[in-house]
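A favour between colleagues. Tell me how you read the following sequence-structure pair.

===
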Amino acid sequence: MDATWLKPIVETKYLSTENAHRYRAILRYFYIQHERMRQYLFPEEVYAFLKQHEEFADYTEEELQQDLDQLVKWNNLIARQETSHVRTIEEFKKKRFRYQCSPYTVEIERMIRTLEQLGDSFGGSLEKTRFDRLYASLSRIEAIIASGFQEQRDEMYQVWEETFDYFKKIIQNSADYMAYLHSENVEERMTSESFLVYKEQFTAYLRDFIVALQKTSMQIEQLLENLPEDGVRQFIGHVVDYERSIPRFADAPPPRPMQIEEKWETWRSLCEWFLGRNGRESELLFLQYQTNEAIRRLTRVVQRLGERHHHFRSRKGDYLHLARWFSRLESIEEAHCLSAVVFGCFHTKHLVADTEATDNIYRDVWDEPPAEWVTKPRVRHYGEKKKPQAIEDKEREKEEARLRYLEEKAREEAELKQFVTDGKIVLADLPEVTPYVRKTLLGWIAKAMGREGQAMKTENGWVVNVVNKEGTICLRAEDGELVMPNYEIHVLSRGE
């Protein structure tokens, strides 16, 4: 642990100590003048500023000098003796000072200004263009590495700073905006009728962010996977060398290997945010999940508000229209048919049973076996009898299930191979295919379209490239027909 983490920060004492209102007013004036490029101030200027306000009507110059001396002791101000206009020895002995606020104080006041503007709610935003800018910066790093580091070191340093500036803003703004959406203030506003005015704006904003995120994130992930580790370390070495070449009046910088390792850990954090680590999902996927959940929550709120609105709406006109409709029917059988369509079946019973979930996302409801429901007696003190049972060895069942799974995958791959002609799958020439083949081909096209070069590696080890031809085609399957663009899937490698 770094020893500086444990050191008390005396520069923040002025915020909560006695006479804090005087110290804060003085340092706020110093901060405002610092932002206006006025570094040194005389006590007379500070006193004239304070006397303009009613809170300092009884404030004296002696109290101001005491406050300035205290702030110097807390390292909030830096005192410098003014000797440029001294005419006598007595004037020099009086030690007339000018004061400058310290770097710590500037950052503290800047943080306080940000907190004052923030208010009680979170800020942040979901800017879709920042991912494009981050991808552009990472592409420049890739180009510099590929060119053999022919760029100047200052150019590499600028690219490095831009990359992590965009990355930090993405993390901070997205986290703050998600916290804003889940804050208590927003939850209360969502329950009011006035929220319906903003629902389209919120939904469109989140939906556009998701689309841009999915499009650019795939490109960033592929770029990070392709960047060589040795090349990135050499790039970091050039960045560190440029930082060490900047002249500074300070203590000796840390050793070069320590600086390189620190920046390498920063780079690893960026890669883990997009790619994940040790089998864990990346923070990017978590951000997508949070945004999708926010859209679902907004939709549910709008639906509840709509139901509440329709609950108080008069249905008199609807029922009169239905009554006239029934009156025009010629037979009771037609009336029964219309009643079934409008009101549903009057004697329908719904049965619910616990079914075992499956990991296959393409499995349909009618493919599941029928469920069994065991009725229990309605007795208050009923309890199921349980008998001790031995642990069954199910290794054979597991092996059989594994073999069945492998056989099914082999059959599916063989089914796909039969559609490959001259190293490509022409969707326009395909006969009627099974739903599995249709879903697999559409999944390949969707993944490849989001990657550079429209090439991707499938789950069965094939490397395919999707080519978009002119016109549209009709892809026929056992469960229906799909009109879609004319695609060809070129099989570059089968992973054999």
About this structure: The two ends are 50 Å apart (CA to CA). Confidence is low (pLDDT under 50) at residues 119-123.
